[in-house]
Task: inverse folding
């Protein structure tokens, strides 16, 4: 085990980023065009990074497996984006956003990164407004805000219930402008299948064209992964169907360490599953908790419909347990509280697998029109999916896998343990600790892409000026291409009896049951024996019909699911060694008398970063010690 | 419920296509239309046959990836609903459902129900943005924007780029998509400096690829996000004005 150095700049926290920006080496405008950069993924992080790097003058190659850069799953983020503007004079500040985020992450994030995130949050809002993002406004013409979980100020900017869509369109438009300017070469329908490393540096990627099947190599001076998170390891999640871990997992196999894989976020408000063939879970935005009240009946055998249940037969369990934050308690806490009630038999709905999110009080206070103006699209979506009208009866909701705080380990400059390989947005691990606060994912994706990476990548590239370039004729590219082809051929040669989706669903069940909202040593060990057994079945019994030279969704999914098998094992292994409860990681062995997470700061105030050591050897554990110089580590309380 | 599907199968862009018949059995009315197709595909894969390829991703009606003609209607029978949000309770046991890809010259079929919509990206690349470099923006609240203007821009910006408007149009025209993008930016103060240039460029690229608008209004009816054809009127007015301005400048 080695101790990782995040290379955090010295000095007071409010000066670290500005001082470091001055200290970093620069690449002059004329020299930028001598460097090429590959950006994989065109969500908020990837599109904003590619656009900004293009504006700066670098030669950028951007890749997305979608048919358009605008389709990445950032687009589905509903509620909003945080910033410390304090436009409403309610006492917000950069320091308060920093503090809330560190506390919300249950003191398992890196202080310096979080402070920088809070610092650039205001620039993001300015940039997005300048691009034409139509944020919600008040009648005076100024920007409106609302509240999100884990905060006692209103700092969340929003565009109806489609904030992610509007921010992504802003970044996509900026990217499109650079495509027109020819500073960015955009490759759609191209999936990265592996990373190429030469002499210890990341120098390129190998891709498959999802329409023609062509496998090709691309070289560059640096590679940026902006490929999102891995919630689909659970199969059922709020992620889009194609979201996967393959880009970061393949990079992990080539030497990039994977940090805190067990930190997964289970979002408290999704529509509960209705049957076994369900393919995904749909989120109902956290913003609904501004006006919705969460409750279950006090009687487990309650048979009346929600509207007929009197006040004294209702248990507003979040308001009861966490009076200070109530229905806006952070996600990990709200999710566990819902699970506790459902497990105890108080669930509602035909499968008794949900809790009520009730707007009747808000509709009575503000009127139906006001609620429709705020949340109309979410209410419509709920009605389309469930066939029930949330204006008349409360929504039924239940927690669902939503976001992954773990990801590739990066230093302060967002560089992974492979020089020249950077990871931004949800693909890295650094800013949210063990639990992400609502409206902070959009903030981090855009902070990394617009403001942090474009500055730090120059510090890596500057000393490379004049050095010989590696191109795709290097033997390493041929070797990686051969590996990729062999893997594709192996899948196409399969003659089993079951679809890739079947295995994915079974894998998801194991991960959800044993590495979901609450975890035990026994359960995790069980998962660690069940996953390899299912994996062996997958290798012998999967069926991938069709050929490799055309659109073949089964083939695409086979590689992604195979990578999920390996990642799922690492998630369980990580959850097993972290003998404490923190944020989204809840070990039943470690809880207080009233069921709250019990951290162990003496032994676990560190990041666990795993090193791949081959198909047949166990991964090696490394650590980064977390130093809290500004915020005092305390037991999180929302009571 | 049990259903009979007549599905367009086409092996590649230049291969001939044909309808194939499949039985979908034991479908839950709570499942989505795409989950029903997943079920059919699972059966095909078990038999070693190639599954029906279709476009989809977020399955919550926002990414704009999915889309198919269902009984001749873009995204199927439920108004203001993407294919992924359409649920089987909209159908009845024993129904026969005809499923085709988007049919439009601007969207060539690639395979089965998958089409090429890259022409939409080319329209945006031609000018569908505000030219502002990262880091050069002033404080966001220095430019107040009347709430009604911001809300209207948002109504236009809600377009998900799915292509239903083009697929529903007898002319295969892309006026609704293009005008929505233009209105989003042209309605905001930030969008004014490039208003004429943007309008001319985007309309130009649109007309190279897609058909002409003759005011059928099918696009608005098919749009899963309820984008109004008022934006087409606004685009036409802006386009005239831009032509005049250009002439004056020349």
Result:
């Amino acid at each position: 085990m080695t101790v990782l150095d995040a290379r955090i700049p010295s000095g007071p926290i409010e000066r670290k980023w500005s001082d470091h920006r001055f200290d970093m080496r620069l690449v002059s405008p004329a020299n930028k065009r001598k460097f090429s950069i590959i950006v994989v993924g065109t969500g908020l992080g990837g599109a904003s990074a590619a656009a900004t790097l293009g504006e700066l003058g670098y030669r950028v190659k951007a890749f997305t497996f979608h048919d358009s850069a605008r389709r990445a799953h950032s687009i589905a983020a509903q509620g909003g984006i945080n910033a410390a503007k304090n436009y409403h004079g309610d006492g917000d500040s950069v320091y308060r956003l920093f503090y809330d985020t560190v506390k919300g992450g249950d003191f398992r994030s890196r202080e310096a990164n979080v402070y920088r995130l809070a610092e650039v949050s205001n620039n993001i809002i300015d940039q997005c407004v300048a691009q034409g993002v139509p944020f919600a406004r008040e009648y005076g013409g100024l920007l409106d805000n609302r509240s999100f979980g884990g905060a006692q100020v209103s700092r969340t900017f929003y565009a109806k219930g489609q904030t992610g869509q509007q921010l992504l369109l802003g970044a996509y438009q900026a990217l499109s402008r650079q495509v027109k300017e020819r500073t960015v070469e955009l490759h759609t329908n191209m999936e990265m299948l592996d990373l190429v490393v030469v002499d210890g540096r990341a120098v390129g990627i190998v891709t498959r064209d999802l329409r023609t099947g062509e496998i090709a190599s691309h070289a560059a001076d640096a590679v940026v992964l902006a490929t999102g998170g891995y919630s689909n390891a659970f199969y059922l999640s709020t992620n889009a169907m194609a979201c996967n871990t393959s880009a970061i997992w393949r990079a992990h196999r080539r030497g990039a360490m994977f940090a805190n894989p067990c930190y997964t976020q289970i979002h408290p408000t999704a529509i509960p599953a209705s049957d076994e063939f369900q393919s995904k879970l749909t989120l109902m935005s956290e913003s609904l908790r501004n006006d919705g009240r969460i409750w279950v009946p006090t009687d487990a055998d309650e048979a009346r419909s929600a509207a007929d249940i009197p006040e004294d037969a209702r248990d507003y369990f979040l308001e009861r347990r966490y009076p200070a934050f109530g229905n806006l308690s952070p996600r990990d806490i709200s999710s566990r509280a819902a699970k506790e009630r459902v497990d105890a038999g108080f669930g509602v709905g035909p499968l008794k697998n949900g809790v009520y999110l009730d707007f009747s009080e808000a509709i009575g206070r503000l009127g139906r029109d006001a609620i429709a103006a705020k949340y109309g699209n979410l209410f419509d979506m709920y009605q389309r999916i469930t066939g029930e009208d949330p204006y008349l009866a409360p929504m039924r909701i239940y927690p669902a896998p939503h976001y992954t705080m773990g990801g590739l380990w990066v230093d302060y400059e967002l560089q992974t343990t492979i020089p020249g390989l950077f990871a931004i947005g949800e693909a890295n691990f650094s800013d949210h600790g063990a639990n992400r606060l609502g409206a902070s994912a959009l903030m981090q994706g855009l902070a990394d892409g617009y403001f942090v990476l474009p500055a730090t990548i120059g510090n890596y590239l500057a000393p490379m000026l004049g050095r010989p370039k590696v191109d795709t004729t290097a033997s390493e590219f041929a070797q990686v291409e051969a590996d990729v082809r062999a893997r594709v051929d192996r899948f196409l040669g399969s003659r089993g009896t079951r679809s890739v989706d079947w295995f994915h669903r079974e894998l998801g069940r194991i991960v959800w049951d044993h590495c979901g909202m609450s975890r035990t040593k026994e359960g995790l060990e069980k998962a660690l024996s069940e996953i390899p057994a299912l994996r062996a079945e997958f290798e012998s019994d999967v069926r991938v019909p069709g050929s490799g030279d055309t659109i073949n969704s089964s083939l695409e999914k086979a590689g992604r699911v195979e990578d999920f098998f390996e990642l799922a094992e690492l998630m369980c292994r990580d959850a097993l060694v972290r003998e404490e409860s923190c944020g989204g990681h809840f070990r039943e062995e470690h809880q207080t008398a009233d069921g709250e997470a019990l951290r162990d700061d003496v032994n676990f105030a560190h990041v666990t970063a795993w090193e791949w050591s081959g198909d047949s050897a166990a991964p090696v554990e490394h650590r980064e010690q977390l130093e809290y110089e500004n915020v005092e580590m305390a037991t999180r309380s929302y009571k | 419920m049990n259903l009979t599907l007549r599905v367009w199968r086409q092996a590649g862009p230049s291969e001939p296509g044909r309808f194939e018949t499949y039985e979908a059995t034991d479908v839950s009315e709570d499942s989505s239309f795409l989950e029903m197709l997943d079920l059919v595909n699972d059966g095909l894969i078990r038999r070693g046959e190639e599954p029906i390829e279709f476009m989809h991703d977020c399955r919550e009606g926002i990414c704009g990836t999915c889309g198919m003609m269902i009984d001749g209607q873009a995204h199927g029978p439920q108004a203001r609903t993407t294919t992924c949000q359409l649920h089987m309770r909209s159908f009845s046991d024993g129904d026969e459902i005809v499923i085709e890809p988007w049919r439009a010259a601007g969207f060539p079929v690639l395979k089965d129900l998958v089409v090429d919509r890259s022409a939409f990206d080319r329209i945006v690349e031609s000018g569908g943005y505000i030219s502002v470099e990262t880091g050069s923006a002033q404080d966001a609240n220095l430019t107040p924007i009347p709430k009604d203007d911001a809300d209207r821009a948002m109504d236009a910006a809600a377009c998900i780029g799915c292509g239903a408007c083009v697929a529903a149009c007898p002319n295969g025209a892309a006026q609704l998509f293009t005008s929505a993008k233009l209105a989003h930016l042209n309605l905001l103060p930030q969008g004014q400096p490039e208003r004429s240039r943007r309008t001319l460029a985007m309309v130009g690229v649109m007309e190279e690829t897609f058909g002409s608008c003759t005011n059928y209004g099918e696009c608005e009816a098919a749009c899963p996000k309820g984008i109004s054809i008022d934006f087409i009127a606004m685009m036409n007015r802006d386009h005239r004005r831009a032509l005049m301005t250009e002439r004056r400048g020349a």
Remarks:
- Residues 153 and 187 of chain B are 6 Å apart (CA to CA).
- Residues 118-249 of chain B form a domain with the Fumarate Reductase Iron-sulfur Protein; Chain B, domain 2 fold (CATH 1.10.1060.10).
